[in-house]
Write a structure and sequence with these properties.
alpha/beta, about 50% helix, about 15% strand, globular
């Protein structure tokens, strides 16, 4: 199912402007190249505006904020919105500090993001910013499990309707919804959480997939999430006894590089609710 989206990315490419986490910027660039996309990084406001204009998609990640990068994010979002480019928001750490929370909510309320991607805690914070964290929303723990899956799916669908876009919630079980239906994806490894940057890499992949597949943003987002999970599985299978998390990070990128559409189709594990 998801292999066709990867094939289209590899065939057509996607130039993605990333204003992203300084900690993981190199890994973000390399995973985009591995998947068939191309990375550009620029966070100074004047430069960001011009760079956005020559790209096809924009990836905004608030993992390492400062006042200048916020200005760059706003400038890039303004230009991308003007040109109709695909835009992804990753509200890293929303809820952990007032600056992160306010920045994420202000960006969400000011711009129309095609995809907002985060863990359940971050997405709940943004839902509060939309006035949506009531009733069933407040009952969801900060971890999606089989036990609370039905409530989580309902919450993600509602928030997707609120933002009029795609919501991707990542964790042990991944949920991707456009408000009408929800992909429930069960690919990945627990060990991926021991690496800094897999979430940042995924945001960039989502931007590339939806830029290359603009006719089906929901499917493209789900394909990127499934691909990252499958890459984590393949990478773990290729680990040696003496390998650690640094090697695992590199093997994940290698797995993305070597993955074909057929491999993705064979290993993807999902259902639609």
């Amino acid at each position: 199912m998801f292999g066709k989206y990867l094939k289209k990315l590899r065939e057509n490419g996607a130039l993605i402007h990333n204003i992203t986490n300084y900690v993981t910027v190199n890994d973000v660039a390399n995973v985009l190249l591995a998947a068939g996309g191309s990375p550009v990084m620029a966070d100074e406001a004047e430069d960001a505006r011009e760079i956005t204009a020559i790209c096809g998609g924009l990836n905004i990640n608030i993992g390492t904020l400062n006042r200048n990068t916020i200005k760059g994010m706003v400038a890039a979002c303004e230009k991308a919105s003007e040109l109709g480019h695909k835009i992804v928001l990753d509200p890293v750490g929303a809820g952990a500090s007032s600056m992160r929370t306010e920045t994420a909510i202000n960006l969400m309320n000011r711009f129309q993001f095609d995809v907002i991607k985060g863990n359940i805690s971050e997405i709940k914070v943004l839902a509060c910013g939309k006035g949506g964290a009531v009733g069933v929303d407040a009952d969801i723990n900060d971890r999606i499990t089989e036990k609370n899956l039905d409530k989580a799916v309902e919450f993600v669908k509602k928030f997707a309707c609120d933002i009029k876009g795609i919501v991707a919630v990542t964790g042990a079980i991944d949920l991707i919804s456009d408000g009408k239906k929800c992909f429930v994806i069960r690919n990945g490894r627990e060990e991926m959480s021991r690496i800094t940057g897999t979430g940042c890499q995924l945001s960039a992949l989502v931007a590339a997939f939806i830029t290359a597949n603009p006719e089906d943003i929901l499917g493209g987002t789900a394909a990127a999430v499934a691909m990252m999970g499958v890459a984590g599985e393949i990478a773990w299978e290729n680990m040696y006894r003496t390998d650690g998390n640094s090697t695992y990070r590199n093997r994940i990128i290698d797995a993305v590089y070597n993955m074909s559409g057929e491999m993705l189709d064979e290993r993807e594990r999902y259902e639609i609710r």
